[in-house]
Write the structure tokens for this entry.
Amino acid sequence: MATLVEKTEAETFIPLKHVDFLVLLVLMESERHGYGIVKEIVQRTNGQIRLEPGNLYRYLRRLEERGLVAEVETRPAPEADDERRRYYGATELGRDVLNLEVGRLRALIEGFDSTGLVPHEDARS
């Protein structure tokens, strides 16, 4: 007979959608406004992933509704800021979810890596 194991709140979000994963990764480093999130994702993915601002705000709204991201009150100096910008940060739950997802992805890659199925950089040459 199988035993039911109750999931923690953070575990109920796993697996994350790839855009949610990227947004949380960026917000782990620091709080950012929407355009700053878009720019950081483009930079960190070497231009492979480009989010449209309208889509990003839908993702942020969903993450906020789920309690993974929150709008923050902290703002940079007024001369370095636009008062219309909204800044976001990862919540404690968002950080927990991201940590679980990183662990899940690492285990997945390691499991397949032991089979020789995961390509390595030197294999591209």
Summary: Helices lie at 18-29, 34-44, 53-65, 92-113. The mean pLDDT is 87. The radius of gyration is 17 Å.
